């Protein structure tokens, strides 16, 4: 059980290139989705996972763009962990790493008072 306060400390940003990895309607995708569900359950029960969000493929960008990438963000996880290394260990377990990537970003601590 994590003793970290329930404040998000890191964000995992999951990316892949469309057309790679398991395809819709296949047993491979069903198996991968089950892994995602089990990981989310494990980390939520331990108090580490504060939220996980799958994104729709449609996106609108505002502001200046400095280059196009083939990969897209498809999901994010908000974590409450004690260190960058702990967040990286969680990221290393993501099931899409054979065809995608996970970026680990520490979040800024903002005091609104």
Q: Quick one: CATH superfamily?
A: Dimeric alpha+beta barrel
Termini separation comes to 30 Å
In the CATH hierarchy, what is the architecture at level 2?
A: 2-Layer Sandwich
The biggest beta sheet, please?
4 strands, antiparallel
Sheet-strand content, in percent, reads: 15-25%
The value of Rg in angstroms is 15 Å
Oligomer type: single chain
| The number of domains | 1
Number of helices: 2
CATH-assigned fold name: Alpha-Beta Plaits
Structural class comes to alpha+beta
Helix content: 10-25%
Q: What shape does the CA trace take? A: globular
In which order are the strands of the major sheet placed? 2-3-1-4
The count of β-strands is: 4
Mean pLDDT: 88
CATH class identity: Alpha Beta
Written account of the structure:
It comes from Garicola koreensis. InterPro entries: Dimeric_a/b-barrel (IPR011008). This is YCII-related domain-containing protein. This protein is α+β, with helices and mostly antiparallel strands and 113 residues long. It has a single domain (10-21, 29-60, 68-106), classed as Dimeric alpha+beta barrel (Alpha-Beta Plaits). The chain contains two helices and four strands, in the order E-H-E-E-H-E. The protein has a four-stranded antiparallel sheet. The radius of gyration is 15 Å and the shape is globular. The model has no long low-confidence stretch (mean pLDDT 88).
């Amino acid at each position: 059980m994590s003793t970290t306060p329930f404040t998000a400390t890191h964000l995992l940003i999951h990316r892949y290139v469309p057309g790679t990895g398991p395809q819709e309607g296949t047993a491979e995708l069903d198996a991968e989705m089950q892994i995602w569900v089990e990981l989310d359950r494990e980390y939520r029960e331990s108090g580490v996972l504060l939220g996980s969000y799958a994104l729709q493929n449609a996106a609108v960008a505002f502001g200046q763009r400095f280059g196009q990438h083939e990969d897209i963000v498809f999901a994010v996880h908000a974590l409450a962990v004690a260190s960058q290394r702990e967040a990286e260990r969680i990221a290393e377990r993501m099931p899409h790493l054979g065809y995608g990537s996970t970026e680990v970003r520490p979040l800024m601590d903002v005091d609104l008072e």
